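The data are set out underneath:

___
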Amino acid sequence: MKALLPALFLGILTFWSGTFAGGATFSGAVSAHAVILAFCLLGAARWRDPLGLGSYGKWLLPALLVALGAGWWLGPVPRAGIVGLVLLPAFLLIPSAVAACWRRPSERRLGLAALGLVLGLVAALALVRWQVQGSPRAAMPLGHHNLLAVWLVIIWPVGLASLAGRGAGRRILGTLVGASAVAALAVTGSFLASCALLVQSLLAAIWWKRARPWLALALVVVWIGPGAARRGIEWLQKGPVALEGAAAIDGIPWSFERAARVLSGSDGSSRVRTGYARAGWRGSSRRPFLGWGPGSVPWTLGRFLEPVAGLHPASEVVGDLHSWPLQLGYETGAAGLALVAAIGWLFARRRHAELATTRETVLLQAALVGLGGGAVMLLGNAQVTVLALPAAVAVVAGAALACNPRPSRGAGRSAVGLGCLYLLPAALVLLPLERAHYFYQRAVAAETRSAALAHVRRASELDPAFPLYRARAAWLAAELGGPDAGLAEGARRAAVEAQHLAPLWLAAGVLGLEADQPWAEEALERARRLDPLSPLPAFHLLRARPASHDAVELGVEALAGDRRLGAAVFWEEHPELREAVLERLGREAPGAAAMLSARTAGPTVLLVQSMDVRPALSFSLFAFRRSPWPADFAPVEVRSERLSASPGSSS
């Protein structure tokens, strides 16, 4: 049974508690943390050198923990990274735990076969859900196509090596699993995954001569991409008619076309990533040695991001920098980045040297191929808070360690010592946070607003440094009983704790404006700086100071961002300002001027800033790793008849 534990561990995180959406729920988060902390105990006997780095290299791990701890302590948002910092020692022990489960050849065969089956189930589910849902890219079970691509790239070499061997049954099963994995990788539509597979194929072709034809076939499948696969399925369903009228570009393999767009600078995704990279570089240059602290990117990057209209959406919250090395430099500084790079390089060097001494040559080579592909993928992905990804890396690293079992002494004493020195303090830190998460989840599912308010207030009491809880409590209380100074101050404190999240500053500024707080304009100005593409901060600043010298500029900015604001009741109360803004808009934005010039009375509706309406773009998921909970704030009263009368507008 112990041999099956690594596959079971990875399966739980991959199918449920370590996924993009599942890990944001209370049940998913608490089960993931419990499974990680429990499983790492199996590697306690090797706690002095859990990654097999040698007598000198093993000191890199405590140095990394010290550097990350210092960055967390000195960083502006320590609450953001506390869970990751607590779980990091457990993840460092997991490779040794995997090796302990697979010490004997029979244990390795059984455990690796189970890992291959997990790979096959993930690939099959991804293909089935992709076809049934009709989505352009496969994303399940992890919840995002890039996450699925990273996971498959890391696992598939080891999964296939585990199913390779004598016997027709194993060959057939290995062929099916391998074909499913390659097909699932293709329909993720990840350009970086095709590049990673190319690197993996080159490495594997050096070691496995007999596999070269299959590797070439896999490259052809993945580089053709999801477009050709989708057209093939449509052809099978509808016949040749489905291909009539296809664009000429459809004849070009997808990955080659994408590569051409990337190199020419016309690829939208690459341009967006370039903007993130520039913001990350600007932030890293401000705190170059220890960084902004673990987990700080979602809460602090808005200060350095310069969004471009038409490329970045308004009110965008960036959950990660889409490049793990860049994110490491931002969050942990040069010290953390150098230590992680040294640990990865030394681990690969030690395992490569063991190829000459191990009997499990194919498995060790497969593990190195998987980790090499994962390194390529992480150049363009950084969602390591989705725990299925670091778990996949740890399990594959453990498979590499299992190829050369190392003797351990005092396993029982080490386990007891680890339980006292690590697990108990970890539990003391995590338990209040988990309880707060439990009450927040109850608030999300509550049937009444008053019940939700009671639960979210309890969550805020248990975890007062978590900005989302405090902000939600203030918003709900203001919705039920009206804004007052105390609630506005609570919303402002939530925005301060999160540092640079524009939606929190906008909500706090509007509540402060309604409660007549002196800091309200400053909060709205900060929201305007952090979110220059959103029209609402400028409009609410205009409400706060309609007689100021920059009132016309604010009005033009707001209506240029969303012409529906021209139907606001506010303009009826300030006719002179309305005429001045209308004169400017007539030259710069005729559509907004037409909306503003209309004169109708009648019923009103509220134009609001919404969040968490679409789970895939959820503010709560990306910024706080919490379940989506739709909310509206920063309302503007507008004339509904004017909206419906305006061509192309929506209410």
